[in-house]
Amino acid sequence: MLLAAMPAAFGLDLLLGDPRRLPHPVRWMGRAIVWAEPRFRRLALPAVLCGGLFTAALVGATWLLASVLLRAAQTLHPAAALGLQIVMLYYCLSARGLAEAAGDVLHRLQNQGLPAARKALAMIVGRDVEALDADGVRRALVETVAENFVDGVASPLFYAALGGAPLALAYKMVNTLDSMVGYKTARYAQFGKVAARLDDVANYLPARLSVPVIALAARLLGGPGRRSLQTALQQGRSHTSPNAGFPEAAFAGALGVRLNGPNVYGGRLVEKPWLGGGFPDPGPRHVRRAVQLMATASVLWLGAGLLLQLILTWRAGL
To answer: How far apart are CA 51 and CA 33, in angstroms?
Structure first.
């Protein structure tokens, strides 16, 4: 079933993207997080334990609900289960949405000016955007395309290959939890610690496995695949995030641009090291090439996911 569902879901994402008119499970996940947080905070336990139970309950409930729905669909007809699996996986992917978001910010920067670009950029990045110049906006765009290649394509397909749509949706809940409560602020430093650590663990392998895929994509596009690989291996670990540095450094080497560096988050300057520090800041063409690189790497990753599923299916049949 997965050998058909994964490419079909990927094709749906490329065709439809994320239409705002359609209901989206990730938005439901966000509502569930908002509903559950105050209830778990009221438990007479340390904040980190409350947050751990909160995280475990939401991730487990997501996996269980998806599994039950697929089982119910299977009892109706195998085609119903296949269709449901395709739709579930489609909602886990965001390659087209990422490309459209990056293109929209770049269009605003070139045609409407810096304030309009900053406003659109604030919708897709976590840093403060008010003081960013044009170079800073483009740098943020390339970084978010690189990092979200893992969050929006590589990791969902990786977990889909391992455990189908239920595991992919459980990963999306982990990722959504991290984006909502995984902050080192007074409110979430303890309560969100388990969610943040779980997201780090979930992305650990996909982030590192993405490096050779990005390098191969760069080579197929006529770029420096070897430099992409070398930059990621040499500089990926220097990022403040345990995972984001690897795809970002691979993109920096592939495109010949510098990324990361000092940025302001919540009014606080965070001194991050440069990735690809010897290269110039990204220009407009680099943002467009980053989107092309992400799309090519996504297709390659889909092929790798199908190969993994074939191997697992073959081993299960032995």
So the answer is: 11
